[in-house]
Amino acid sequence: MPRATPEDDSRVEDRGTVVRLAVIGEYDPAFPPHRDVDATLAQVAATSDAELQAEWVSTEVIEREGSQYLARYHAVWISPGSPYRSLDGALAVAQAIADKIRGTNEGTGGLGD
Known about the structure:
Elements: E1 18-24, H1 32-47, E2 51-57, H2 59-65, E3 75-78, H3 87-102
Parallel strand pairs: 1-2, 1-3
């Protein structure tokens, strides 16, 4: 799976726009749905004009850093499978996404545009 480099906000000449995606969850290569997520992202990356930079982000990172950690990403995907290591972290992501959809700033913590 492509890995994100959050500090790299550049464009790639031959691919166009860079799209950064956070996949929230506790990656387990033995769990078939997680392998399916990776396969789907690889297929999207291979067929897109944009460069997809995807990174698995543990719910513990969100609990520790807050939902503002997500501001470095263009999109967020909450992965299948539980239990999450941090239910509070998973819920913070869901709340930030819901607030962004509703157009409020409460709880978004800077969720990227």
